[in-house]
Amino acid sequence: MTAALRFNNLTLGYDRHPAVHHLDGAIDTGALMAVVGPNGAGKSTLFKGIVGMIKPLAGRIERGGGLAARDIAYLPQAAEIDRSFPINVFDMVSMGLWHHTGLFGGVDRKGRHRVEEAIAAVGMTGFEDRAIGTLSGGQMQRMLFARLLLQDARVIVLDEPFNAVDAKTSADLFDLVRRWHGEKRTVLTALHDIDFVRANFPETLLLAREPVAWGNTAVVLTPENLLMARRMCEAFDEHAAECVVPTAAA
Amino acid sequence: MYDWLFGPFIEFEFMRRALAGTVALALGAGPIGVFLMLRRMSLVGDAMAHAILPGAAIGFLVSGLSLFAMTAGGLIAGCVVALLTGIVARNTELKEDAALATFYLLSLALGVTIVSMKGTNIDLLHVLFGSVLALDDQTLLLIAANATITLVVLALIYRPLVIECVDPGFLRSVSGAGAPAHLAFLALVVINLVSGFHALGTLLAVGIMMLPAAIGRFWARDITLMVVISAVTGTFSGYVGLLISYHAGVPSGPAIILVAGVLYILSLLFGHVGGLVRQMLPQRHLEA
Lengths: 250, 288
Known about the structure:
The complex is a heterodimer of chains A (250) and B (288).
Chain A: E1 3-14, E2 17-28, E3 32-36, H1 43-50, E4 58-63, E5 72-75, H2 89-94, H3 98-101, H4 109-121, H5 137-151, E6 155-159, H6 167-182, E7 186-191, H7 194-200, E8 203-208, E9 210-216, H8 217-220, H9 223-231
Parallel strand pairs in A: 3-7, 3-8, 5-6, 6-7
Antiparallel strand pairs in A: 1-2, 1-4, 8-9
Chain B: H1 2-11, H2 13-38, H3 42-51, H4 53-63, H5 67-91, H6 96-118, H7 121-129, H8 137-166, H9 168-174, H10 178-204, H11 207-217, H12 223-248, H13 252-270, H14 276-280
Helix pairs in contact in B: 1-2, 2-8, 2-10, 2-11, 2-12, 3-6, 3-10, 4-5, 4-6, 5-6, 7-10, 8-9, 8-10, 10-13, 11-12, 11-13, 12-13
């Protein structure tokens, strides 16, 4: 199986301080992978690196199998959405057609139909004309999933998508994740619910700035590994020396 | 009645020119105002309108009431103030708004001083309040060209501009069009301010931008309709303002803005979307 993404001694961070330190490994095409770790472990940083929002401090991220940057769809943890903006659910979801419409193209009948299908798939039929400012947190997240559906991306990166969302909504939305997995798309998800990860994700990366363990979920999420992850220090050391380790063991 | 409504424009060429100029100005400036408002940049437009004054004044000092000199001077002054604001905000404790405030106030003071040094009080009034009743061919062409450019460019960058306002993170993840669209938009703001400067003067140029935009906010939940309403109310204010100015003998620039102001207050009170009277009326809530 070819790798969708490969990390080569990857270090990501801010102001020279590493938030993800010496990560090596590959994510197979079609993988359904959870990224787990305490707050400040570097999960969001890793995702931002993958979608190209921040540049590596060192090392590389390689896309394999003819994957282009536009093939990666990303749902950030805290989307910077201006909820007071006068736009309705239908128009918001139809942004997911960007790669079809581009800057100028219109949304044709087929496109409108796809938008309606996506809205139906997240259980939001009837909300098309609602202003986004009137949606609840869970409805907002459903709408953003509908937009992801339309993006039709080969790699989907979800940063804590089920935070502050009730059980019913997260179950509905996870059905979509499972559907993507069935369609051989690569899905990376940051999560905090360890039991949920054990039950639903075949592969897990346990991150605590350094990669603690990566692989089969049952093997990764042992009490020892989780304890080790919890002990990792979150704060940056202002006076940290320069890191001179050329490569970490893969 | 017919005479009162159309007579002035049939009879006098300068009224026809004024109307053409105002309509062109309103069509471009209204939509620009909507985007300024939605990006919470309403006062930036105002500050920039004052910032172009010293440049226009120097142009005036050098070559009198010449369209080219005053336009070029205004554009240069606007860019200098924008640049200085950026430098100060980046390198000192002052934030962007404070930095812009200091520079535009200085610009305004400097501009008024320069005009007063050479010109008469009439010239000063001309610069401060514009001269919509004395638009020559060149100025009319400039305003019309700016309006055309505005509408065409706005149509081209509409989608990235809207997405950049509502969800900038998403736009960044699918396209690099955000930054160029933003820059193009800022350029449109400046050329519309220059148009407004010639017609309504430095103090009121932003009025034909922001008042119609604010009116649109009270009647539409959808940005497209908001843009349409702003252009229409701007145009209507221009027409009625010119009529009142003709019949009542009041200065035309302020008359146009006052008409827009009346429409704004009516919208504020009775607007369909969040108008004050509507909010106060006891309305039963719905079942679901």
